[in-house]
Amino acid sequence: AFEALGLPHTYELFETETVGEEIKAALASPDFGGASVTIPFKLDVIPLLDSLSPHAEAIGAVNTIVPLRREDGTVALYGENTDWLGIRECIVARLPAASARPKAALVIGAGGTARAAIYALSKIGVRTIYLFNRTRASAEALVQAFPNIDVRIIDRLGAWPVDAPTVIVSTVPASATTLDGSSVDALYLPAEIFAKDSEGVVVDMAYRPALTPLLQLAGNVAKSWK
Predict the structure, then answer these.
(1) Can you say how many angstroms the Cα of residue 9 is from the centroid of all Cα atoms in its chain?
(2) Are 198 and 189 in contact (CB under 8 A)?
(3) Which of 55, 145, 178, 203 is a Cys-bridge partner for 186, taking CB atoms 3.0 to 4.6 Å apart?
């Protein structure tokens, strides 16, 4: 994109174990032009920023940092969240005509991306959002972060208190999921996660592989899902 627009910028990897002095130095560098923030730092980076967009503030997570130059020449770091926009557009573009406003959705995971997913689903008008996470305490903290949204923690995938979800968003690494029911090192995804004879939309936020276990399962058992 930079090349196509004739801009002199570069987009590079900057990987650290924590949001520590290295990150602080990078943000304070005079040639800092902005950053994408990935798992697991979408919450931890917030204290280093000067302000947040209304969306990032409501979500409580940042995936984009923009340096804004003030009139006096100093720079303010602005935190934005674009995850929710990507999630929303992926869902809306593929919803079946009969499911313009899904009654229920499922979010897997309880990190910063899960926050964006819940926010996006609420903006679409989903009434009930099921939340599944292997660590219940993290799920409970996420529910408390959205007191005005009906987020319900579930303890087993495929067992729905009311309506079955017609939208599923996974926000965990693909390596943390499996289709092997005997595995103890990853989250087992049962076929029942897709209600029988249902149609809907499944979004996996994992970068790689292109065909994650969740998407593979959808292709095998949920032919009407997109």
Answers:
(1) 27
(2) no
(3) 178
Summarised one tens digit per residue, pLDDT across range 98-116 is: 556 899 999 999 999 999 9
- Which of 198 and 77 is assigned the larger pLDDT? 77
CB atoms within 10 A of CB 37: 23
pLDDT of residue 13: 94
- Which segments of the chain does DSSP mark as H helices, in order? 21-28, 54-59, 83-94, 112-124, 136-145, 213-221
127 C-beta neighbours (distance < 10 Å), count: 15
The pTM (predicted TM-score) of the whole model is 0.91
Average pLDDT over residues 40-49: 95
| CA 7/CA 36 separation, integer angstroms | 18
DSSP string, 147-208: TTS-EEE-SSTT--SSSPPSEEEE-S-GGGEES-TT-SSSEE--GGGS-TT---EEEE---S
Look up residue 8 and give its amino acid.
Answer: P
Q: What percent of the chain has pLDDT over 90?
A: 87
100 exposure class (CB count in 10 Å sphere: 0-12, 13-18, 19+): exposed
